[in-house]
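Friendly challenge for the regulars: who can give me the structure tokens for this chain first? No prize, just bragging rights.
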Amino acid sequence: MFGLVEEAIILEDDCIPDPSFFWFCQELLERYRDDGRVMQIIGENTHGYKSPEYSYFFSCYSFYCGWATWRRAWQLYDGSLKLWPELRKTSWLKDLLQSERATKYWETIFDLIYNGFNSWGWAWSFACFANRGLSVNSNYNLITNIGFGSEAAHTTWEVDEIANLPTESVGFPLKHPPSVERDFRAEHIIDKHRLSGRKYFHGLRNRAIDSLKNQEHEEAVRLFEQCISFRPDLLGLLYGKAVALGKSGKQAEAIATLNHLLSRVPRHRKANLLLQTLENPFFESQLANQTVSLQDLILEEQDFGCSIPKSVFLESPTKSNQLLIWGMDGRSANSMSNLIKNYTDKFSVNFPGSSLQNPEIPIFKIGDRVKMIVVIKNPIASNIMFLLRQMNGCYSELSEGQIEGLDWKKLCVNLVNSDPLCAIKWLDDKLKNDLQFDAYSSPFSILGWKTYLRQNHHVLILQDEISPSEKERIVSMFLGVESLRWGDESDEMQVVSVMKNMKLPDKYLEACLNSKFTRHFFTASQIEKIYLLFTGG
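First reply, four minutes later:
Bragging rights claimed.
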């Protein structure tokens, strides 16, 4: 591959990226293209560490589910590890990793590779270590690995705490560290959660399960407590400890442990059943055949009644119940506002208006915690909506026959004489001044929607042109609610009818379709279709 290109973004076939993964890699491939200290850009974050100040951090560790690199770095790869025998005789690896456990972990791996075990990923880690190379690590998990199970090439086990973790979106513009330096605190957490610590933890957890099977209840309690002390973020371990306590006859302690678990995961089915058992005076006999499997210790979707929130495993983000909806025309934003109000009371829904309604209403103060939906539309359609709104506010009542009978020449003159960029200017001003971010700083998604994180604001921008079913899916996912059902699009069809009657001059079309807004938020093929619609092509 690197015989053909200078740099590449690489995905394993069982990994699914968040769309922002590609923009993250693209920007950083360019930024560190000529910096020999940086050998890799990593999209996955399954350990939970986040830089407190910047969008990413540097470490000596490599991961390979979704990543990017350069030809200059890959040229240092040596699958045979020919340098290993000599380096093994020195303190090189211990000096690099500064951990006895980590050193022994990697010595075992490099011995395997040198003696013929086939793993290009581990060999790549050796190349990065040997050349003191660093990787860029995202604060957010941009990759989910769905390749766990009996049919997988390597990860053939069904249950794993890093399998199918949800993805997140990284916000732009990226906040870059001022210097290229290893983050040793990050490396400690990565090693603990994913590397040598993961191996140690899995061994400890397996011993706890085996002790319970062998009726060594006190030993099982001790081992589960060690597991929890090592990985307090894995809440499912509390279930194993509660079973061990119950089988040891320690009813009160078992109940307290379950209550702790249920305070974080109220719908944990097995924990609720076990709690009922423990509250029975004859609980000891009922627990006689109780066992714990690895599956029991991994939280699953049914424990939450929805997809597993990453905040259960990592630090919980600040939540908000305030929702604001902006739109370039009143119809799209107002219909979405009414839809959400009808389907959920989870949010306080505010529809402060659009470029066509009360444009001076202050939306919110910087520092407020809000979710926000911005509905964008091609500017010609937005301007037509404004034109129809001027018809005594009853455009939605017009029949197709009435539309055909309108004075189109006069309406076209009125439209062309108005500012073609009015709605665009309004939206740009609101995003810049109220939200304080530049929506043009990173490419928009070809899917027609994209999410952003800005200070305390979680923002969804989506095209009004995408299908109702897709809108339902995206908005439901963004709000974390049950599936919404979009209403009919009769007034949208009316706009299409108006468009077919409009023959707009090229100068007006060019002002709208060649604007920075249109070329950023719409693809070339979408723009071409809009142009043909108004030129009769």
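Residues 149-159, 304-320, 353-368, 392-396 have pLDDT under 50 and may be disordered. The CA atoms of residues 497 and 512 lie 19 Å apart. Your move, everyone else.
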